[in-house]
Structure formats: C-alpha cells, structure tokens
Design a protein that fits this description.
With 114 residues, this protein is mostly beta strands. The chain has one domain. The chain has no helices and six strands. Strands 1, 2, 3, 4, 5 and 6 form a six-stranded antiparallel β-sheet that branches. β5 and β6 form a beta hairpin. The radius of gyration is 18 Å and the shape is elongated.
C-alpha cells in the first residue's frame, strides 16, 4: 500500500480469506493442494500539515494541495502452503475508491500469515 507518516495517523486493513483448492491429484503420490485465496482492502490517513515531504513515491500517495488525504489499495492473492512454509502471491491497485491509480503492484513473499 505504501507508507504514511505524520503526527496523527489511522490505518485499517480488512481481509477475507477462503479455501481455493483443497487438493488436485495428478497421479499416485502427486498432489497439489492447500491453496487459499484472499481479498483485501488497506487504507490509511495522515495529518501532515506540519510535515515537509521531499518527494512523492510513484503510485503510493494521493496528494491534494501537497497534503496526503488518503492512501488506499484493494487487491487479492493466494497462498500455497507447503507445510513448513507458505508461498504468498498478492496483487493490488492504489485507489481513492473512485478510480484506480498507477499499475498493478505484485508482491511475492514466503512465510506464514498473521
């Protein structure tokens, strides 16, 4: 989503997780499974009237008169559990809930989700 800073901030994340594929059996002993899907909304606001921003990070800040009014993203993804580690694939777009900005952001990471 991007980072926000200021003397006062508020952030919110809502995420829906659901089973996507429990198991696909190709041959005896070859099974792909434990794939879970997710849809999410991230949003944040900051009061930065007294903060000097040196530059805008492309696609991560929505500015109005040099003040951040909202940083939000919506997206989805999936996680593939390999037992001791999860492979996570996320896709997101920056938005102000009226239109989308920039290109789709892709993240890959390994590890368990919260």
């Amino acid at each position: 989503m991007g980072e926000i800073a200021g003397p006062t901030t508020l952030t919110c994340n809502m995420e829906l997780r659901f089973p996507l594929i429990d198991a696909i059996r190709f041959a005896p002993g070859i099974i792909i499974g434990n794939i879970r899907g997710k849809l999410f909304i991230d949003t944040g606001f900051a009061d930065i009237q007294d903060v000097n921003l040196s530059k805008e990070i492309e696609g991560s800040r929505l500015l109005h008169n040099d003040e951040i009014i909202n940083i939000s993203s919506i997206g989805g993804g999936f996680a593939w559990s390999l037992g001791w580690v999860d492979l996570n694939f996320d896709f997101a777009r920056v938005t102000d809930f009226e239109k989308m900005y920039g290109s789709t952001i892709f993240q890959f990471w390994m590890g368990k989700q919260f």
